[in-house]
Amino acid sequence: MVSTNAQALSEQLGGELLGNGAQAITRIGGLASADAQTVSFLANPRYGAQLEQTQAGCVIVAPAMREAAARCPSAVICADPYLAFARLTQWWAAQTRPRPAPGIHRSAVIEAGAQVHPTAHVGALAYVGPGAQIGAHAVVDMHAVVEAGAQVGEATVLRARTVLGAGCVIGARGIVHSGAVIGADGFGFAPEAGRWTKIEQLGGVHIGDDVEIGANTCIDRGALEDTVLEDGVKLDNLVQIAHNVHVGAHTAMAGCVGVAGSARIGRHCTIGGGAIVLGHLELVDHVHVSAATVISRSIHKPGQYSGVFPFDDNASWEKNAATLRQLHALRDRLRALEKKNT
Question: Of 243, 268, 280, 288, which one is the catalytic site residue?
Answer without folding.
Answer: 243
